Amino acid sequence: MLFIINSLFLLEAYDSILKSLHQSVSSNKAYLLVIIPNTEGRNFKWFQSQGTNENKLVLKENEIESFFAGYGFKTKLIKPICYTHHYNRTDVKLFSIFWAVYLNILKRIQTFLKIGTANYFLIALTPKSS
């Protein structure tokens, strides 16, 4: 199993990285697990509003499968995860040193109940031939 966690969209050479990963996944009969931001999620929208232009790759949910298919991957799973946004929150100031506990509890409740829009997608990929 190979993992790319929330960094694929930041990498300049994602094209060559995905080609190399496809070879590795194919030869090892492995899965590639990728976590990417949901472009409709509040975390992503906040980062985009900051004008940092850090995102080299921006995929909408309906583009995920075809994007990875272009690199020879078959999408086995696209799962929305992490419903609680963490950036530009004013409510965390109310909990001072307990802000991390507060956000963790809020995240668990929102994820369990699927309240709001997920901030990320967990994607499981295999080579198309699998």
Low-pLDDT runs of 5+ residues are none
* Average pLDDT, all residues: 83
Query: Helix segment count?
Result: 4
Radius of gyration equals: 16 Å
Q: Give the overall silhouette.
A: elongated
Question: Could you spell the SSE succession in H and E letters?
Answer: EHEHHEHE
N-to-C span:
14 Å
Largest sheet entry: 4 strands, mixed
CATH fold-level name: Rossmann fold
CATH superfamily: Vaccinia Virus protein VP39
CATH architecture descriptor: 3-Layer(aba) Sandwich
The class by helix and strand makeup works out as alpha+beta
* Percentage of residues in helical conformation: 25-40%
Can you identify the CATH class?
A: Alpha Beta
Count of individual domains: 1
Strand content: 15-25%
Number of strands: 4
Description:
The chain is α+β, with helices and mostly antiparallel strands and 130 residues long. The protein is 34% helix and 21% strand. The chain contains four helices and four strands; from the N terminus they run E-H-E-H-H-E-H-E. The chain has helices spanning 14-28, 42-49, 64-69, 99-113; strands at residues 2-5, 32-37, 73-81, 120-127. Strands 1-2-4-3 form a four-stranded mixed sheet. It is elongated, with a radius of gyration of 16 Å. The two termini are 14 Å apart.
What is this structure's SSE topology?
Layout: E1 2-5, H1 14-28, E2 32-37, H2 42-49, H3 64-69, E3 73-81, H4 99-113, E4 120-127
Parallel strand pairs: 1-2
Antiparallel strand pairs: 2-4, 3-4
Can you tag this structure with a few keywords?
single chain, 130 residues, alpha+beta, Rossmann fold, four-stranded mixed β-sheet, 4 strands, elongated
